[in-house]
């Protein structure tokens, strides 16, 4: 029997990439690959890249520089290390990567991961670097059968891809080019996945997609189902106690999604709803197809349905032609909505997008200054939101042992990490926690009625949502 080969996958960017990395592990397992924590002793290194902003893309090339050294060292030891570039940079830059970085053996875009074993075999046989040249047949072809996914279910919380790609074409965004047009998976397949995950101990499902609320998968009745209807159905699956979805677009919030928030206890009252800017002029230049007032109305519809709902968002500062007045409109919108958290970014022109042809008008210094002001406002809102939990009893889904011995960590409805000292058998349960204090982003407390005080453990930020919407 041949010894297992070691596979190291490094993922950048959003949760869709984390999910895809797992798919690649599953696809390569039958080839004898097992995961290893370090690139240095790996037989196969996969960089699962992100192209959303310039900084994210640049990381690939610096990592490839390091891998060149590791590959040479491996060769000196008589080992062959193969290097694969996957993800959105692979999709966007293709052959250019092989030209710039000869260390690369295979370049493969997100729609072709199911061809990875054949690509590796061909690259080896032909002794040359390969870019995917298979036709994109089935966008979700790379998904292994649900049974395999179920067996590999790890932990309490799991992502399930329901939709991929985006048809919105915001002028700054690469997603419609790297992830392609919008495609939704059929309802039956999603139910099957969630059912099997639940049978394997998963208690929380996050439905993911670049524009997840544009979901319109075929239902068992032969008609397309909107996301809200899918959520009602998934909430019926025994064992599933929490449902989430990410990332949403304000234009695609239809009424069943709002009523699902009103009716379903399992649907968490925390929605990532990017707005990007508070200025109507900039929103139009971004081709967002909504105004700030439209966005506020969408927020109001959610709030009317579920009083304790909270929001996070994405913002871009320094989009071409953004004036101080436009930026002030963004600050005003943030002040008015009140977020539990948000991500903000400096505009970076992405090759091939319409905005990349626009004249950049905001200086780096102004962009930096606007980013700091926006982040200060968001941070103050996030801190206030977290502090508001102190003294309250909140439901926590416990996920795993924390770093501090004896502590178990879980998350609140708003994804705040919460630590308690408790026996490990609470993992997988939703239990009320009396929140006593806050350490950075982490809530510390005790199981309600258990009456014990706790010490802090490692603090965590909100995890990065899906790039998109
Ligand atoms: N420049 C800066 N930020 C961007 N984003 C997407 N494209 C760009 C870009 N060209 C941000 C948006 C999006 C998030 C995932 O990344 O805010 O919602
Ligand atoms: Fe689509 Fe979101 Fe990108 Fe706009 S920002 S094109 S909605 S993925």
Defining traits:
469 residues; alpha/beta; Rossmann fold; pyruvate-formate lyase- activating enzyme; OB fold (Dihydrolipoamide Acetyltransferase, E2P); 3 domains; 6-stranded parallel beta sheet; 5-stranded mixed β-barrel; 14 helices; 19 strands; 34% helix; globular; binds 5'-deoxyadenosine; binds iron/sulfur cluster
In words, what does this structure look like?
45% of the residues are buried. Strands 2-1-3-4-5-6 form a six-stranded parallel β-sheet, sandwiched between helices. The chain has helices spanning 15-28, 54-76, 87-93, 95-100, 116-126, 146-151, 175-178, 187-199, 227-234, 255-263, 280-285, 292-305, 324-337, 364-387, and strands spanning 5-11, 33-35, 44-49, 82-86, 106-108, 130-131, 157-161, 163-164, 183-184, 204-208, 242-246, 270-272, 310-317, 341-346, 393-401, 407-411, 417-421, 430-439, 442-447. α1 links the parallel β1 (5-11) and β2 (33-35). The protein is built from 14 helices and 19 strands. 34% of the residues lie in helices and 21% in strands. With 469 residues, the chain is α/β, with parallel strands linked by helices. It folds into three domains: 5-135, Methylthiotransferase, N-terminal domain (Rossmann fold, 3-Layer(aba) Sandwich); 157-387, tm_1862 like domain (pyruvate-formate lyase- activating enzyme, Alpha-Beta Horseshoe); 393-459, Nucleic acid-binding proteins (OB fold (Dihydrolipoamide Acetyltransferase, E2P), Beta Barrel), CATH 2.40.50. The protein is globular, with a radius of gyration of 23 Å. The longest helix has 24 residues, at 364-387. Bound molecules: 5'-deoxyadenosine and iron/sulfur cluster. 5'-deoxyadenosine binds next to β13.
């Amino acid at each position: 029997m041949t010894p297992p080969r070691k596979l190291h996958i490094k993922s950048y960017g959003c949760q869709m990439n984390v999910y895809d990395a797992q798919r690649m592990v599953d696809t390569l397992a039958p080839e004898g690959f097992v995961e290893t924590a370090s690139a240095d002793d790996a037989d196969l290194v996969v960089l699962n890249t992100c192209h959303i902003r310039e900084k994210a893309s640049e990381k690939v090339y610096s990592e490839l520089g390091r891998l060149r050294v590791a590959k040479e060292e491996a060769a000196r030891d008589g080992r062959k290390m193969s290097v694969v570039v996957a993800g959105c940079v692979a999709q966007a830059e293709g052959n250019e990567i092989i030209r710039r970085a000869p260390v690369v053996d295979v370049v493969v875009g997100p729609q072709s991961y199911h061809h990875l074993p054949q690509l590796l075999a061909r690259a080896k046989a032909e002794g040359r670097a390969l870019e995917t040249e298979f036709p994109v047949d089935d966008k979700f072809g790379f998904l292994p059968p649900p049974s395999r996914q179920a067996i590999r279910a790890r932990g309490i919380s799991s992502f399930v891809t329901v939709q991929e790609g985006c048809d919105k074409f915001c002028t700054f965004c690469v997603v419609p080019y790297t992830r392609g047009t919008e495609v939704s998976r059929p309802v039956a397949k999603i139910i099957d996945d969630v059912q099997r995950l639940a049978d394997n101990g998963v208690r929380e499902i996050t439905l993911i997609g670049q524009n997840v609320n544009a979901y319109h998968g075929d239902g068992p009745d032969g008609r397309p189902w909107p996301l809200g209807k899918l959520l009602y159905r998934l909430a019926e699956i025994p064992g599933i106690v929490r449902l989430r979805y990410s990332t949403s677009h304000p234009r695609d919030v239809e009424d069943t999604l709002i009523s699902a928030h009103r009716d379903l206890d399992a649907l968490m009252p925390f929605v990532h709803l990017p707005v990007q800017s508070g200025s109507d002029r900039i929103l139009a230049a971004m081709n967002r197809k909504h105004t700030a007032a439209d966005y506020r109305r969408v927020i109001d519809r959610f709030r009317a349905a579920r009083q304790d709902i909270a929001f996070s968002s994405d913002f871009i500062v320094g989009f071409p032609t953004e004036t101080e007045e436009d930026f002030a409109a963004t600050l005003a919108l943030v002040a008015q909505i009140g977020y539990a958290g948000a991500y903000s970014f400096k505009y970076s022109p992405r090759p091939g997008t319409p905005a990349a042809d626009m004249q950049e008008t905001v200086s780096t210094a102004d962009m930096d200054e606007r980013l700091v002001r926006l982040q200060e406002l968001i941070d103050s809102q996030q801190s206030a939101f977290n502090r508001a939990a102190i003294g309250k009893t909140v439901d926590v889904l416990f996920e795993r042992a924390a770093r501090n011995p004896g502590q178990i960590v879980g998350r609140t409805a708003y994804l705040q990490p919460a630590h308690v000292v408790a026996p490990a058998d609470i993992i997988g349960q939703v239990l009320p926690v009396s929140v006593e204090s806050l350490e950075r982003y982490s809530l510390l407390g005790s199981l309600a009625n258990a009456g014990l005080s706790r010490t802090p453990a490692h603090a965590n930020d909100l995890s990065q949502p899906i790039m998109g919407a």
